[in-house]
Amino acid sequence: HAEDFSGSIWHGSAGRITVNARDAGSVEWRLHPEALLRLRVAADVRWVRGGFVLDGAARLERSGLIASGVQGGGPVEDLRGLGLPAGWRGNVQIHINELRAAFSDAAPTLQAAVGDIAVSDLSSPQVAQGEDLGGYSVRFADSALTPDSDATAQIADTGGPLSVEAEIRFSAKQRSAMLSGTVKERAEAPAALRSQMEDLARLHARDGQGRIPVDFEFTF
């Protein structure tokens, strides 16, 4: 749902967007009139929610939606209310080269996802008593997906108290995701984090290099 419109159909904004009754910030657009001659809708778009800002280009065609050059980011806490668990803090930087989705009767089908997401200064009061958990990168490199294939992303740490190597697999059909990989505390890890890692190791035994296997499944 969109409201609080200003400007024109060519260059305007909606000051309030809600998705499933959740505040989704605001959006500004600048249409490209020449695209209409090819039966397309193309626009430069800016999305803002608090201090979180994303800029990119979007093109709507009969076959689906294409987003490209999506750049920006902001504080993790400004994404609260959009499915992010309460208490998490940090900074996010997003660089999406291409995102394509096809329209279908049931729901949009992801066709491509290429780009990177970087998170820094991550922390949560539920983990290591709020200590800094360092930084992480998420890389999508699926330039071509079939309707039955899952999208994947590689996750790795960029420094901090945890060594992380994992993959997350998204299933659009099942509306679920599975994260699988390993995690291991580094020498500089704070005592509170070491204690939680030992608790985790009691549930999932460490391998020969001291890494703990992890598997998480969640729905969206």
What does it look like?
The protein has 220 residues and is mainly β. 6% of the residues lie in helices and 56% in strands. Strands 1, 2, 3, 4, 5, 6, 7, 8, 9, 10, 11, 12, 13 and 14 form a 14-stranded antiparallel sheet that branches. The longest helix is centred in the last third of the chain and has 13 residues, at 191-203. The radius of gyration is 20 Å and the shape is globular.
SSE map:
Layout (H helix, E strand, L loop, with lengths): L1 E6 L3 E9 L2 E2 L2 E6 L9 E9 L2 E9 L3 E12 L13 E14 L6 E15 L12 E7 L8 E7 L4 E10 L4 E10 L5 H13 L8 E8 L1
Secondary-structure-derived class: mainly beta
* Subunit organisation of the chains: single chain
Any low-confidence stretches, pLDDT <50, length ≥5?
Answer: none
Helix content: under 10%
Q: What is the distance, rounded to the nearest whole angstrom, between the alpha carbons of the first and last residues?
A: 20 Å
Mean pLDDT: 91
Characterize this entry briefly.
The protein is built from one helix and 14 strands; from the N terminus they run βββββββββββββαβ. The chain has 220 residues and is mainly beta.
List keywords for this structure.
220 residues, mainly beta, 14-stranded antiparallel sheet, globular
